[in-house]
Specification:
Mean pLDDT: 87
Strand content: under 5%
Protein name: Monovalent cation/H(+) antiporter subunit G
Radius of gyration: 19 Å
Number of strands: 0
Structural class: mainly alpha
Length: about 120
């Protein structure tokens, strides 16, 4: 039973590390601020949450210590990272940062012109 728990913990930590690596490559390789922000906010959030949850499982199931700070870190990142990513994208759009040349559709263009935001 202990080996199964260790494998589950390792899977969470490895998946989190992989998602963080994908987020780093996305920030480096993607063409504009909006897609980079998407990579940073989605993949990095899930990556950090997976690593923190794996650490929580390790300390709780293997070491026998309940660490509420890890759970609070997961909740904090889950609530703040998507909001921060949205606000950064919105600020970039409102200041006139251009979309990538090959972007197909701009959903906010009609809303900004009609002042519905």
């Amino acid at each position: 039973m202990n080996e199964i728990i260790n494998i589950i913990i390792a899977i969470f930590i490895l998946v989190g590390a992989f998602l963080s690596l994908v987020a780093a490559f996305g920030v480096i390789r993607l063409p504009d601020v909006y897609t980079r922000n998407h990579a940073a906010s989605k993949a990095a959030t899930l990556g950090v949450m997976s690593v923190l949850f794996g650490a929580f499982l390790y300390f709780y199931l293997v070491e026998g210590h309940f660490n509420s700070r890890l759970l609070l870190g997961i909740v904090f990142i889950f609530m703040t990272s998507p909001v921060a990513g949205h606000l950064i994208s919105r600020a970039a759009y409102n200041t006139g940062v251009k979309l990538w040349d090959k972007s197909v559709h701009d959903d906010l263009k009609t809303k900004v012109k009609s002042k519905d935001i």
